[in-house]
Design brief:
This protein is α/β, with parallel strands linked by helices. The chain has two domains: 10-162 and 300-323, Rossmann fold, CATH 3.40.50; 164-298 and 337-367, Rossmann fold. The protein has helices spanning 10-24, 75-90, 105-114, 128-134, 164-178, 193-209, 226-238, 252-262, 300-312, 344-359, 368-374; strands at 60-64, 93-97, 119-123, 142-146, 157-162, 183-188, 214-219, 243-247, 267-272, 292-298, 319-323, 330-332. The protein has a six-stranded parallel sheet, sandwiched between helices. It has a six-stranded mixed sheet with strand order 7-6-8-9-10-12, sandwiched between helices. The chain is globular and about 55 Å long. Residues 1-12 and 21-51 have low confidence and may be disordered.
């Protein structure tokens, strides 16, 4: 690779991540944009004079979602939120392109390339193959791909990944301390290494606080099947769990619905975005209580915004960067609707574990093999 990856430090990226979190607030309610027609971009946003890079021209950026779309209220939505923040704070023109099928990925990327966009964000590892074909054909465009562990080794591609196991460990610790039944659940989407990181970290966190707790695991084999999420959540609840963490895209909306239908004593844990409000009686006007205990925030929005900021400042460098708890990129929500129901001693325990992760003295497992190897006895 002509531009080798840089080691991620707490420097510019860490400061930007933390300041973005403080400015936006993890509990911020985000309006879902209207979905454009299949495979076509939404209307571009306006510009601000003098807000571009060294040329002074306003830069243009587009987000290409995976098939989950921004309606997942999670992963894709967070990427779009980050681009909207770049519009607001940096003066970018922004474009949303929602992919309806996997066949849309390459045409959507090429369309943005042909239109001369400065920055194109590909949301999800599923776009890897399409991006590997497209990026070399548009060397002047800066491409950013999210969650691709082996992002294309092309001089104009930046891959952003996260230490999901760290944040999942913390929500697991909270679940372990909150379970009244000694059983908790995990509902994943596709059974792939990425989601296994969520599962491994979560199971380790549960065990750290309540070693005797059992973790029941199911996979939807989909990112979009909300009904499947509800079905599997109800199976896990029926098997004795009282808390379920999901990492399943739009399917997770079904997991949250199942927890709401069960009522007091049952919880869901959201993912990627702050989904806490979705567990309230009226998510449009949220107020306590919520059946979403917390969400494992994965600050895709902040990462996208920071990439746009670097590109605007002519500081782009290709390669892969990894963001975790230390950088403020993964972790719990502010517990806006549930904090009063959580014992103070448990919150202190979770904070102590977080401090250990930041210090490097605690490294949650990232695979099931690592998890099993770390089990006592």
């Amino acid at each position: 690779m002509s531009n080798p990856p840089r080691r991620m430090t707490i420097g510019l990226w860490g400061v930007c991540l933390l300041s973005f979190v403080l400015a936006a607030g993890c509990s911020q309610k985000t309006e879902e944009p209207a979905a454009p027609a299949a495979g076509t971009p939404s209307a571009a946003a306006g510009t601000r004079a003098g807000s571009g890079g060294s040329s002074g021209k306003a830069l243009r950026a587009a987000v290409i979602t995976d098939v989950g779309g921004v309606g997942d209220k999670s992963f894709n939505m967070m990427a779009w939120n980050g681009l909207q923040q770049a519009q607001k704070d940096l003066g970018y023109e922004v474009q949303l392109v929602e992919s309806r099928t996997q066949a849309d990925y390459e045409p959507n990327l090429r369309r943005m390339g042909d239109q001369g966009y400065d920055v194109v964000v590909a949301v999800g590892f599923a776009l890897h193959d399409a991006l590997a074909k497209v990026a070399p054909d548009y060397p002047k465009i800066k491409f950013v791909i999210i969650d691709d562990d082996q992002s294309p080794e092309v001089p104009n591609v930046l891959g952003l990944t996260f230490r999901e196991a760290e944040g999942s460990f913390l929500v697991g610790a909270l679940a372990g301390g909150m379970t009244q039944k000694g059983k908790v659940g995990f509902v994943g989407g596709m059974e792939i290494p990425l989601i296994k990181r969520f599962e491994a970290g979560y199971r380790a966190g549960v065990r750290a606080v309540k070693p005797s707790a059992e973790v029941l695991v199911k996979y939807t084999k989909s990112w979009e099947d909300v009904a499947k999420g509800t079905e599997l959540a109800n199976i896990v609840f029926a098997q004795g769990a009282d808390i379920i963490y999901h990492a399943s895209g739009r399917c997770g909306l079904g997991v949250i619905q199942a927890a709401k239908e069960r009522g007091p004593g049952f919880w869901a844990i959201g993912v990627d975005a702050d989904q806490d409000a979705l567990g309230t009686a009226d998510p449009e006007h949220p107020a306590p209580p919520s059946r979403v205990l917390t969400s494992m925030m994965k600050r895709v929005d902040t990462a996208v915004f920071t990439a746009c900021q670097e590109i605007q400042q002519d500081h782009f460098q290709a390669g892969r960067r990894v963001l975790g708890v230390k950088e403020g990129a993964v972790g719990l929500t502010p517990l806006t609707y549930t904090k009063s129901e959580i014992p103070a001693a448990l919150l202190q325990r979770v904070d102590a574990l977080k401090a250990q992760i930041i210090a490097g003295t605690l490294k949650p497992p990232t695979t099931i093999k690592e998890l099993e190897a770390s089990q006592p006895g």
